[in-house]
Every structure is written in C-alpha cells, then in structure tokens.
C-alpha cells in the first residue's frame, strides 16, 4: 500500500459552481404551495421562515437548490420550500445527499435532520459525512425529544428524563451534537437558536459560504413533548447568563453586565469565570478563533454546554477551517483521469489486450 | 539430460485440471495464467475458483486450501467440469482436501516437499499417503517441486523462503508443457507484474521455464496431451469473468443511456471486484464512492439518481438485506437504480466465498409494503455484461430500481466471450422532462412529477437544475400525478396497483425453449448460474437417447409473457436450483403448475452428471418406465464425453487421461 499526493484543488466558497440567479429573488418565491403541518407554536415555523427569508440573498438559481431530509417532524421541511427536494428515510439523508453532491457540483445541497434522525438511527452517516467534508449544509433541529413518534427520549435528552418510554427516567448519557461533530473533525460547526432569527440567519449565511460540510445545530422548541427545553436562552431574565456568544476575533464574554468570561483551565480545557476574579481581568479571556486548526479548542468550547437541563451553552460558529471537500476531490480524480488518459474508448476497453480470432 | 523415451502426444477432446495449494501459494494466479494460455490457444473453457474466506489461514491446514479448476475442450462446453482429470497438489492438505473430488484413474501431480511427518499428522495422516499404497488407483507423480524451484532460481541470491515462492510458476511451467500451452503470454505477464522487482521477476520466469523444461527432459512423463482449439462462431474473443463483465456492462449501459455512472458500494465478498474494476474506469465518467456501510452505498446511488446519474450499488445477500429500506424508497420515488446482488451462501454470513442462489425471494419480496421491482439474472460469466445493459435499460426506461442477480460462481468463474460491438447495443433514452407537462386548474403550465407515459407507465423525470420544474418527492404515499403527500384511501389503492402494473408491464423477450425435435415431455427450467450444468445435463441425456427440453429464465420479474404457456405444454417441468426451491415456489404460485423441484444447497455449482441422472430418471418416469427398469439417468451420468453438442469423430477416445468411474 502507498499514498499519493491528491493534487488538492482549492475551491473558493460553498456556492462555487452553482449558477447565479438572473435577478433579485424574494422570500415568496421560495414558499411552496403545500400547507405547513407542524403543531402550533413549533420552533420549526421560525426556522422555516428564517430559511425562506435567507435563501434569496444567496443569489443562486432557485432550481439549483436541493433539500434532502430524513424522517421526523423537521424532515417535512423540504415540502414547504419551492426548490428541488427529497423527503427520504430515517437517518439516511447525509448518505443520499452525498451521492447528489458528488454527481451535481452545480447544486447547493442542504440536509434537514433532527436529533433522532441524525444522531440515533443515522449517526454513522453523519460522522462519515463530516469526516469526508462533503459539500452539504446539515441543519440539525435539536428539540431533545422524539416528536413524530409522540414523546420518547432522544439521544440528546438529559439523563433522568421521564418520557413515555422512560417512566423511571432515561438512563442514557446524551450526545452533545457539537462535540460529536468536532470529534469527527467537521470543518464547520455552529450552534444557533430557533427564536433568534438574526443569529440563525447569520449562521446560515456562514454555513452556505463554507466549502465542505457545514454542521449547524439549531436549538428548537417542541411545545408538545418537550416545551421550554431552551427557555434559559429565551427568557430575558436568564438569557444573558445562558448564552455564551462566540464571535470570531472577540474575547468570549457574556452574562449580565458582561461579568462572565471564558478562560483556559488546565490541560486543553476551558472554564467560565467571573471576570472580576481574574488576575488580569478581561485580558485573561480567551479570544475566539474559529479558524484554529486543532479541533481540541472548539471541542473544549463545546464542553461548556450543560449536559443535563440546559442553563448555559455557547452559541455561534465553533469552528470554520479549510480542508478540501470530498466531492471536489472525487470529481478532480475523474477529470484528471479523463485529461491524462483521454475519454474512455469503451470498445477498446471491453476488447482488452488478450484476444483471439475465430475464422 | 537426454531423454531415452520418446514422448507420445495424445489427443484429448477435453480436460479438467485443478490447481490446489495453500492460500498463500498463488493458486488463483496460477489458474488465471493457465486460463489465459488456454484462452489464447483457442479452446473453449470454463473456470471455477474456490478459496477460503480467510485471507491466510494457518499454512498447511485443510481450511487454508485454495483451488482453481479449469475445464477446457476442443468443443463448446458449459461447465467447469464435475471432477478433475488432473490435480496439482502443492502440499499434503491440498491433496487431502481435494482427493474426494478426484475420480480414480486421474493424475495427481504432488509437491512432496511438505510431506513431513509433522505436516502429515497435523491434517490427520498417520502415514505418508504417497507411500501406503492408498493412492494406487491414481496415476501419482510425486515431485519435489519446491526443491527443484529453489534449485532453479539459486543464481538470483534469494532467501530460501522467497525462492520457494516461485514454486507455483514452476508447477505452471510443467503443466503448460504437459498440455502444450503457449507460454509467451505468461512470460510477458510476469515481466509486467514484477517490473519493479527485477530479482523476483527473473526468479519467477526462471522457475516457469525450469518447470517447462523439466517436463521436456525428465522421464516422469511419457505422454503429452493436445486439446485442439474449439470450433466456435467466427469473431473476436477474449476470456472474461462475471464480475469484470458486470462492471463493463454497467459502463456500457450508462454510456448507451448517455448518463454518468455513480457507484455507491461497501466492500463485500464476492462483489468487491466490481467496485475495484469500476474504480479504475474514471475516464468513462464513472464515479465510485466506497461508502461507510451498505445503506450509505445504496443511498449515495439513489441520491445520484435523483441528480440524473445512473445510480448503481453492488453487494451480496447480507448487504442487500441492509439496503432493503432504501430500495423500497427507490420504488416509491420511481427513480432508476441498478442493484447488483452477487449471491453467496447464506443465511447470515453463511459461507462468503461459496456460491448459492438463495436470494431470489429476498429480492422479490424483501421490502415492506407492496414494493414490486424488476429482477434479472445472468446465466453465465459473460452474460453478466448483457444483463447489466438490460438492467440499465429497464431501470432508466421505467424509472425503477432493478435487481441484477449474479452469484459467486459467475463472479469469479470465467469463459471465452465473443466481444460485442458497442455501437450495436441498444440505445437507452432517459427522456428527461425539460418543460411543463400539464396545465393547472388556473390554466397555467405546470409540472406533474407523477404524470405517466401511457405505454410504459414510467413517470416524468425532471432533474434538479431544471428551471420551473422544481418539485418534492419522498417516501410518503403520493397523490396520483402531482406527487403531493396523500393519505386518501382510493388514491393509495390506485398507486399500489399502478406501481405493480408498471413492473408487470415491462417489456421482456419471450422465453426460448431448446426442444430439438419438439417431442420432449420433460422441460428443465432454470435461472442464473445453473444454466451451464443444466445444459450439460440435458446434452448428456440426449446423448443416451432421452428427449428433454431446456429453457432458462433471465427475467424473473416480470416473467416472460409466454412462460405459463410453455410450462403447460410439458408433462413435467423440472426446476433445479441452488436453494430450497424458490423459483419452484414462484412458478407454482403464479401458474398453478406442479413443477418438480431439484434443490441442492452445498455452496458449489450443480454437477452436470448429477443433473443428467435426475433428468434421465424423470424422462423415463414420465414415459412410464418402472423404477427398477430405468437406466437412462445412470447412463447419462456416467458418460465421459456426453456434453459436446455434436458427435465426436471416431478414434478420439483412445487418448483420454482416464476413465472416471462415473458421478461422484
């Protein structure tokens, strides 16, 4: 066995190769004629509205947007957008989107998934898509519950959670989706909240511009089976202390009156401290660098998320680094083969070199 | 050394030769080279590799034995042969593991180097079988092949271990001499294969030549054999294995449809070679994705199909089980998808390197809900090419997943192939929809993704990037024409029946029956890789005067439209299968014909002699001959030269290597 230099193509931006729209677009163009069927008050409505409002600003042809989803409440998303879409099967959207992205460099491919779809039944596809860095944007709607099957605990539900299938409390240790993505060395990892349209849109924009897989966890409220799971991030009384805002190039500082910050703490760890108690005050705070090559830094940030009931979590872009995208490399090899060996002559291929003739 | 005995040359009409040794001894390579020499000489041939799933089981043990059998002839043949005329055994385990297949009178060429007390004891021999007389019924040629190999390459200064590795080439040289094979292609092959390792290259070539010369000069052999080239239809030929033919057929299908090919696959025995071959063909606009698992493999293929490519996935039974849900999605989405199942012995992990055809019912019915899809099956290694083109035609024309059934025997076996002219293959029209195909209730042009072609019932297929035709599809039941989600009871019933009608209505060629004078009362009907053994069995029965008809199904769903009529026009229909009667069950269910199932599930191809006996007995039974008066089956089974289509010229039979005692 040996290795070769792949001659990595360095392609600019997430939308490279996707044809530009002929003119300005508006939100309405992206609204399909299908009646939206989520429960009243579902966080999905807010994400859908933000997404429909955001798509026109990409400036690409509407027919070159492709949405692929799995199964779950959020996976109905493609039906409500007037783009090409596939509502596939449980957990498999990243695998299907991989085939689509590889074969169609002219599409902007988006995967819509949930915590059960992406992290439970589809966990394998998710981590492999992330490690390969396929050009697709994965929006993981995390409501920490199974909604469509009416209220069982999910792989992000907190330990001890009482649900229909865990009357004595869940004994499962939950996944932190951001930690998982970083463990798979995802090149773009972000987290946002359904109700903060401005932040959500800014994260979507950054995801769209990223070449490779962009993974976005969206905290999304399920008003029926897990209401107020993210209340700490929404209540004006608590949100300043709950949201650790990640802004590239800025010290990580938050809390009421800006009294809290993130500092280095021991081996490869970070911790939240009162700024007033720091020896050098704000100068001791970590300045967020999303381009840090080593995923350990972003991973340490992700560990500032509560594992149980959520009172505090970092929000924003954890990591955004460049690495060649899988589908670009795959196409590069096909193109290289055609350039160096010429387009294939099938007759000569099937004939081969060892033939004989019967007269 | 000068010969004191003149070498006699005997004419044979056919020979079955088997190379057997340790997994690490290079027996598959040796067999491949002998096959290439034989093909270039112009014999008809058929091969059967047989190897353990373990890559290198402990050396010298029975589980570690790997073998390669080749049947070559001066006439058209159909199988790799039931039993070897010549066995080359490279160690005691290879002798012991293969001896039960070798009829008395056959030639055993045995490398004696490893026949030590310790090695013999390890595999259960208390004494050396070469010395006890237990092999007296065979023509045994004991030779220290390893020792002679080491001697022949000593000038290259290799270690004894490296030097002895060339023993397979020494053995190949010897049998190439014995059967007068042309040797140039093997020397050329070794020059290319070991181009970067001159010592190894030269040692292998030297060992090969030394083996050849040993035959020429030593006195172990007083006879050489000649098998004349076979009379075959005029044209250009090559030798090809089933997996290679399948890979080429998929590329040909994609090209004839004008579509890029995207393969999503996960390595699995015996299908991996299709992935390997396609990964070399990037210049043909072929993309291969080695996925994280079987499900992702078919998922990627389906995603590519959504994007307008020819999506293909290749696997074996266990992988097909995993892909079932995605294939069902393909049925619902009505997108082209080619799913190749290279069957192996099951259930579960089963015997990965052994052949079987027990996935038929799985691929027919192994999905939730009413999820019909077309199934085609290759009948010989070379037929894998044509069947792949046919599967592509059906998938693209009818917008449906199509299952291609092959098996381990076809995948690794090989035969001469009359090279097709690519331009003569049918063109396949994807017929993409590029503009509105309907008008909505406001009178505006619109696109209905589930509007169907009235002839084929194929739905309209618009790919992403087509302006104005954006639409959403998915696994939920869809409304007729619009494809919107629908839970309407009548609509569901309509859609279920429509998907079934689409598959039922696929145009497939009528079943052809080989019934030489049209008076046979017994029909033998098979599918898949049993084509060769069934054909050979029928020829044997005809040779002893039996009347039997043969037909073989390449289309298993839908069946050819004349199948029911064919079944009803024979008194008895015999269905031999390497499963417990899966086709027999389908035929009984659909046509209410009480077919006779002959089921053997040993992980090995059916034998020609075995089938001849079964067919002969059934022919006599059908003609009312009493049990104890029957002789045809036995006579057909014990024929040594019953498989040639035409009677052999007189005087040929004196040159046969042996006269086997009959069927195993």
Please explain how this structure is put together.
The complex is a heterodimer of chains A (359) and B (664). With 359 residues, chain A is an alpha/beta fold. Chain A has a domain at 27-238 and 313-336: Thiamin diphosphate (ThDP)-binding fold, Pyr/PP domains (Rossmann fold, 3-Layer(aba) Sandwich). Chain A is built from ten helices and twelve strands. In chain A, helix 1 crosses helix 6 (197-209), helix 2 (93-103) runs parallel beside helix 9 (326-341) and helix 5 (177-183) runs antiparallel to helix 8. The two termini of chain A are 44 Å apart. Chain B folds into four domains: 8-227, Pyruvate-ferredoxin Oxidoreductase, domain 3 (3-Layer(aba) Sandwich); 238-424, Rossmann fold; 431-507, no CATH class; 513-653, Rossmann fold (3-Layer(aba) Sandwich). Chain B is built from 22 helices and 25 strands. In chain B, helix 18 links the parallel strand 21 and strand 22 (548-553). Chain B starts with 7 loop residues before the first strand and ends in a 26-residue tail after the last helix. The chains are: A alpha/beta (359), B alpha/beta (664). At the A-B interface, strand 1, strand 2, helix 2, helix 4 and helix 9 of A face helix 1, strand 9, helix 10, strand 11 and helix 12 of B. Strand 2 (84-87) of chain A pairs parallel with strand 19 of chain B. Chain A: This is 2-oxoglutarate ferredoxin oxidoreductase subunit beta. Chain A: It comes from Kribbella caucasensis.
């Amino acid at each position: 066995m040996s290795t070769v230099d792949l001659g990595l193509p360095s392609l600019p931006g997430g939308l490279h190769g996707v044809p530009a729209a002929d003119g300005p677009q508006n939100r309405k163009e992206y609204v399909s004629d299908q009646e939206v069927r989520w429960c009243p008050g579902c966080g999905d409505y807010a994400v859908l509205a933000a997404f429909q409002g955001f798509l026109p600003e990409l400036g690409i042809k509407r027919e070159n947007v492709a949405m692929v989803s799995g199964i779950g409440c959020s996976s109905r998303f493609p039906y409500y957008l007037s783009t090409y879409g596939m509502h596939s099967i449980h957990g498999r959207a990243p695998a299907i989107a991989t085939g689509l992205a590889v074969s169609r460099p002219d599409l902007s491919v988006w995967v819509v998934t949930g915590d059960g779809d992406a992290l439970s039944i589809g966990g394998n596809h998710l981590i492999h898509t992330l490690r390969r860095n396929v050009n697709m944007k994965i929006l993981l709607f995390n409501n920490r519950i199974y909604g469509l099957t009416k209220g069982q605990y999910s792989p992000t539900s907190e330990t001890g959670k009482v649900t229909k299938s865990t009357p004595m409390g869940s004994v499962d240790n939950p996944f932190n989706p951001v930690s998982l993505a970083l463990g798979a060395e995802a090149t773009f990892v972000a987290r946002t909240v359904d109700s903060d349209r401005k932040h959500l849109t800014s994260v979507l924009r950054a995801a769209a511009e990223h070449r490779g897989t962009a993974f976005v966890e969206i905290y999304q409220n399920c008003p029926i089976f897990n209401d107020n799971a993210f209340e700490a991030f929404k209540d004006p009384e608590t949100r300043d202390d709950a949201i650790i805002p990640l802004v590239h190039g800025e010290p990580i500082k938050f809390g009421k009156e800006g009294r809290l910050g993130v500092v280095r703490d021991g081996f490869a760890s970070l911790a939240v401290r009162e700024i007033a108690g720091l020896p050098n005050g704000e100068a001791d705070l970590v300045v967020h660098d999303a381009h840090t090559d080593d995923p350990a830094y972003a991973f340490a940030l992700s560990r500032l998320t509560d594992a149980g009931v959520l009172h505090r979590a970092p929000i924003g872009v954890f990591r955004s680094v460049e690495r060649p995208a899988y589908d670009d490399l795959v196409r590069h090899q096909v193109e290289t083969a055609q350039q160096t060996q010429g387009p294939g002559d099938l007759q000569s291929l099937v004939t081969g070199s060892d033939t004989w003739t019967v007269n | 050394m000068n010969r004191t005995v003149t070498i006699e040359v005997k004419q044979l009409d056919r020979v079955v030769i088997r190379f057997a040794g340790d997994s690490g001894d290079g027996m598959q390579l040796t067999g491949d080279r002998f096959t290439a020499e034989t093909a270039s000489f112009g014999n008809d041939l058929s091969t059967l590799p047989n190897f353990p799933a373990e890559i290198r089981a402990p050396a010298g043990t029975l589980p570690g034995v790997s073998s390669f059998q080749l049947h070559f002839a001066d006439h058209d043949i159909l199988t790799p042969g039931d039993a070897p005329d010549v066995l080359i055994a490279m160690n005691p385990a290879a002798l012991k593991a293969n001896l039960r297949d070798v009829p008395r009178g056959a030639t055993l060429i045995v490398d004696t180097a490893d026949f030590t007390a310790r090695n013999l004891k390890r595999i259960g021999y208390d004494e050396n079988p070469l010395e006890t007389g237990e092999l007296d019924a065979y023509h045994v040629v004991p030779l220290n092949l390893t020792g002679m190999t080491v001697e022949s390459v000593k000038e290259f200064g290799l270690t004894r271990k490296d030097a002895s590795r060339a023993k397979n080439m020494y053995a190949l040289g010897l049998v190439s001499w014995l059967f007068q094979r042309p040797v140039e292609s093997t020397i050329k092959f070794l020059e290319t294969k070991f181009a970067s390792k001159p010592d190894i290259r030269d040692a292998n070539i030297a060992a090969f030549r030394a083996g050849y010369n040993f035959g020429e000069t030593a006195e172990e052999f007083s006879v050489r054999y000649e098998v004349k080239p076979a009379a075959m239809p005029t044209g250009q030929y090559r030798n090809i294995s089933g997996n290679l033919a399948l890979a080429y057929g998929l590329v040909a299908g994609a090209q004839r449809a004008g579509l890029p090919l995207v393969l999503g696959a996960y390595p699995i025995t015996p299908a991996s070679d299709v992935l390997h071959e396609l990964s070399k063909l990037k210049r043909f606009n072929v993309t291969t994705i080695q996925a994280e698992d079987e499900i992702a493999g078919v998922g990627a293929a389906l995603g590519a199909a959504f994007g307008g490519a020819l999506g293909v996935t290749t696997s074996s039974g266990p992988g097909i089980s995993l892909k079932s849900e995605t294939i069902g999605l393909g049925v619902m989405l009505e997108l082209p998808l080619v799913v190749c199942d290279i069957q192996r012995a099951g259930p579960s992990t089963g015997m990965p390197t052994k052949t079987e055809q027990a996935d038929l019912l799985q691929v027919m019915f192994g999905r939730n809900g009413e999820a019909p899809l077309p199934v085609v099956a290759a009948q010989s290694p070379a037929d894998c090419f044509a069947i792949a083109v046919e599967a592509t035609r059906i998938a693209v024309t009818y917008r449906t997943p199509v299952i291609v059934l092959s098996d381990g025997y076809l995948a690794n076996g090989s035969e001469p192939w009359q090279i097709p002219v690519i331009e003569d293959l049918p063109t396949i029209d994807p017929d993409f929809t590029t503009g509105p195909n309907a008008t909505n209730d406001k009178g505006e042009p619109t696109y209905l993704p589930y509007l169907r072609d009235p002839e084929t019932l194929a739905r309209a297929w618009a790919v992403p990037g087509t302006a104005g035709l954006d639409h959403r599809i998915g696994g939920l039941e869809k409304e007729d024409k619009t494809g919107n989600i629908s839970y309407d009871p009548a609509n569901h019933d309509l859609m279920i029946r429509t998907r079934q009608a689409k598959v039922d209505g696929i145009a497939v060629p009528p079943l052809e029956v080989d019934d030489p004078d049209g008076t046979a009362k017994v029909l033998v009907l098979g599918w898949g890789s049993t084509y060769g053994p069934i054909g050979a069995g029928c020829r044997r029965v005809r040779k002893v005067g039996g009347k039997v008809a043969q037909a073989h199904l390449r289309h298993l769903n839908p069946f050819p439209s004349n199948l029911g009529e064919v079944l009803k026009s024979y008194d008895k229909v015999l269905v031999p299968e390497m499963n417990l009667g899966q086709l027999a069950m389908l035929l009984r269910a659909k046509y209410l014909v009480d077919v006779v199932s002959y089921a053997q599930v040993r992980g090995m191809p059916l034998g020609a002699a075995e089938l001849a006996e079964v067919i002969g007995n059934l022919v006599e039974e059908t003609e009312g001959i009493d049990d104890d008066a029957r002789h045809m089956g036995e006579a057909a089974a014990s024929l040594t030269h019953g498989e040639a289509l035409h009677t052999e010229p007189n005087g040929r039979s004196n040159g046969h290597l042996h006269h086997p005692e009959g069927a195993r």
